[in-house]
Amino acid sequence: MTFQEFITKVGQTFSGNVWTMSLTIALLFVIFYFAISILNHNNAKWVIVVFVAYILATGMVFMLAEISGWNYFIVPLLFIVAIVAMFATEIKRGIWKVRVKKSGEPRKFDKGQRSFNQSKYVDEIVKALLNMSKNNIGAIIIFSDENLPNSIIESGTVLDATISAPLIESVFFPKTPLHDGAMVIVGEKVHAAGCFLPLSQESNLPKELGSRHRAGIGVTEAISVIAIIVSEENGIISIAQGGKISRYADSEALRQTLSEFFWQVQSEYIDVKEN
Predict the structure, then answer these.
(1) If 0-12 CB within 10 Å is exposed, 13-18 middle and 19+ buried, where does residue 222 land?
(2) At residue 18, does pLDDT exceed 90?
(3) Could you report the per-residue pLDDT of 91-139, keeping only the tens digit for each?
(4) Domains of the chain, with CATH numbers?
(5) What is the CA radius of gyration of the chain?
(6) Which residue, 120, 9, 6, is CA-closest to 73?
(7) Whole-model pTM?
């Protein structure tokens, strides 16, 4: 069967019985919708389930059209190409999603204490970012929910220190041992510093974006984290999420981004009263 005959057969299927046509279109729409929903929630590993369902759905179409042979694989192949093209970032995140090994017992915090700390940590981070921006000190901070690959953490130095503006500023002070790498904040701790990140391979990025910005974009393309970058050349603060970068972030934008991050962290901890 030629490709033209294949297209004709499929066209005949959709121009036949109205109930068959409606059922087929609805079935394919539902499958495609669930594929998009799953990828939007960064659950790329479940795409295989959707793909199998899609194979079965297209199989029903081909049986109705009496299509057989290698032509059976054309529509699923087009489906794969479309999904990869539309959700390359989400698929990459799913592949890279490796959790950092946890050590010790889960941290437990009192609700009132956590609410106070959240505001305190946001204040400390924003203060440090604005100070570094004012003095044109380059910096990149990654905010992670323990989902960075061990290879990234191990490329730097583990600190496991309490978040504070003086600590952040001292790490990125020019010519200090860790200033060229990325700082990783996990939950309420400065987990590591001096870490190396994968650079974005996007060719359409503005030329004025240097290696720090490419690293910030690159890591958010692969993993569900937030990257905040301070430019060494002009002090501009940028926020990278989902492979996209937003420049000229002010204190309000920083506070909103950080508050959302700590709110998510807070919701994932067990809230009990401290002994």
Answers:
(1) buried
(2) no
(3) 555 555 544 334 333 344 344 444 447 889 999 999 999 999 999 999 9
(4) 3-96 (no CATH), 108-271 (3.40.1700.10)
(5) 24
(6) 6
(7) 0.63
